[in-house]
Amino acid sequence: METLESELTCPICLELFEDPLLLPCAHSLCFNCAHRILVSHCSTSKPLESISAFQCPTCRYVITLNHRGLEGLKRNVTLQNIIDRFQKASLSGPNSPTESRRLQPQRPYTATISSTIAGTVVGGGGGGTSGSSARGSPATSSHSHSHANHANHINANHSPSVVAKMEPRISCQFCEQDPPREAVKTCVTCEVSYCDRCLRATHPNKKPFTSHRLVEPVPDTHIRGLTCLEHENEKVNMYCLVDDQLICALCKLVGRHREHQVSSLTERFDKLKQTLENNLTNLVKRNSELENQMAKLIQICQQVEVNTAMHEAKLVEECDELVEIIRQRKQVIAVKIKESKVMKLRKLAQQIANCRQCLERSSALITQAEQSLKENDHARFLQTARNVAERVAMATASSQVLIPDVNLNEAFDNFALDFSREKKILEGLDYLTAPNPPSIRDELCTASHDTITVHWTSEDEFSVTSYELQYTIYTGQTNFISLYNSADSWMIVPNIKQNHYTVHGLQSGTRYIFFVKAINQAGSRNSEPARLKTNSQPFKLDPKTAHKKLRLSNDCLTMEKDESSLKKSHTPERFSGTGSYGAAGNVFIDSGCHYWEVLLGASTWYAIGVAYKSAPKNEWSGKNSSSWVFSRCNNNFMVRHDGKEMLVEASLQLRRLGVLLDYDNNSLSFYDAMNSQHIHTFEISFLLPVVPTFMIWNKSVMILSGLPVPDFVDGVATDLQEQQQQMGLCRQESPYLTGMKSCH
């Protein structure tokens, strides 16, 4: 028996197989054990649903799962039947090893309850019933496993005494003594808990008691199940969908729920469980996203702390440098003041000495003159005063030389210390921030067929160190932020010092997205995106292609029907057929969006369109599969391709025809440019470059090329694209024309 039991033991849980799965390698494994293996491989980035393989624990063979997961593996029914028979044989005696092991309480109370609810048999006297009841649905097994994990978590975090306090005492319901003894088993069949003595008395080891299911003691409410709130002693066995509550059979038959829609408990259980699992999955996912978001926020907070500390240290360093500069300048200016003082005082001392010397000489002369004036003797006076008078006259005449001028500048009166400008600068000290986003001025931007000049303005022009221009071809994506982050074909022009820049070498007739980035030491900011487009490819009429009965102007922009035109040499490119009075442009177009206009004048018979280079030159344009034209024949307007014609509506006063060739979007459109009206659009899957073609049978026409696409053409083209994407283009097809559409 022991050898047989070892063969029937799961290699994971070391218990008898429960709901065994038959693996492709011929080994077996409990369903719950296989589920635990998958759970062990789960992580935040790798949910359970994404695990598609695991290894057999016996032979390490890799088991590949399909989209059903473990449910896609076959159940080992034969092994399960053998286990059921083995359990019956093992339970034939109360002293058998298996019975002794199963009668011992091995799991805490919470795990026992979950096992009972899930229908798992722990021990007892019967085999067949217990075996089939023990193995429920996978959902039930998983539910039991989750409760068991919760119980193991309780055991791991609480001491035995704490667990004992958590487990309520279950008394024997068969004892007559007071108080009753503690129950050791609960009979699921009898729905009664027994102590050891009462169990031996009421459940002898003989039929029919051997088929009773014995489990660890559980409360009476758990073993008996829920009872109906309206009908006493009636167990709930269905669910009312209207009132959203559990009901019994009587409620449905004679109660207030008899007219309500009900479902089985299993169906409602599965549905509610699935809903709860989905919501739980979403909640777990949301929690994971919140955790990631919180981790990012925490990281940003830490970065803020680091940056703040760095900026504070930088502030102290910069301010200390300013203080040191002021201190040094203070010393320098103080030295200059002292040196200037010494120099000025030296000059003033010299002037004072000169004045003193002059004063002494003058005083001596005055004294001598006064002595001479006291002489009354005329002869003596004349003898002595003559020399004195000359000296006094000379001293008086040279008074400006004798008396030095006083220089007021030497008194520091014109010297001042004015630091008002520096004070204002210091008062304006602040930390530098990234400049405000510049603004692209669409109205100032200009374009040619291969260049675009972008103009922008900035509120923080003085704080901007440089600008950076980024541009790429516009693909029609409306989410510019996504386009900016995803496009890998952006062209970058760095280190621009002006508020404008001209980009060369662009594709003609093409839309571009432009960003301008303002940069300084603190960072950079982008402008709002601007959509700018190059003009259409300019072209002229090619004289080498003009029919010999057409006359072209000197600038090759006008063609006129002239029967008396001079003979021209025949070339393969020249229109030569009878009535094929045509000419082609001198450019082949293989990309971009191009617009040109044709001034029709008084001509009432013409055909305007595009064609491949291989289109025949000896027949009307539109008569073959290589050309597409809009044509007028007197009062009838039509479009023609591959020999098929379709009438379209247009004004008899049509004098200016607009042609829009959108090569990238496979369309050729015609417009009444004077009245801003759409006439017709061809849908063409271009395979080769095309050339503009022109045919007339009377009067003359003039072409205007290299034009920007008008706003009304942009609006029609956008509407057509939206209709094509959302609801499909309305097609008005003639029985004689296919592959063409017309919207008026």
User: In DSSP terms, counting alpha (H) and pi (I) runs of 4 or more, how many helices?
Assistant: 17
Query: Could you say which structural class the secondary elements and strand pairing correspond to?
Result: alpha+beta
- Low-pLDDT residue intervals, each spanning 5 or more residues: 93-165, 722-744
For the record, give the distance between the C-alpha atoms at the N and C termini, rounded to a whole number. 91 Å
Average the pLDDT over all residues and give the rounded result.
79
Provide the gyration radius in Å. 54 Å
What would a concise description of this structure say?
This protein is α+β, with helices and mostly antiparallel strands and 744 residues long.
Describe the structure.
Residues 223-265 form the B box-type domain. Residues 121-130 have a biased composition (Gly residues). GO terms for molecular function: microtubule binding; transferase activity; zinc ion binding. This protein is α+β, with helices and mostly antiparallel strands. It has 17 helices and 35 strands. Strands 22-23-34-25-30-31-32-35 form an eight-stranded antiparallel β-sheet, covered by helices on one side. A hairpin with a 4-residue loop joins strand 31 (667-672) and strand 32 (677-683).
Task: Provide key terms for this protein.
744 residues, alpha+beta, 8-stranded antiparallel beta sheet, 6-stranded antiparallel beta sheet, 17 helices, 35 strands, 35% helix, flat, disordered C terminus, Znf_RING, metal-binding, transferase
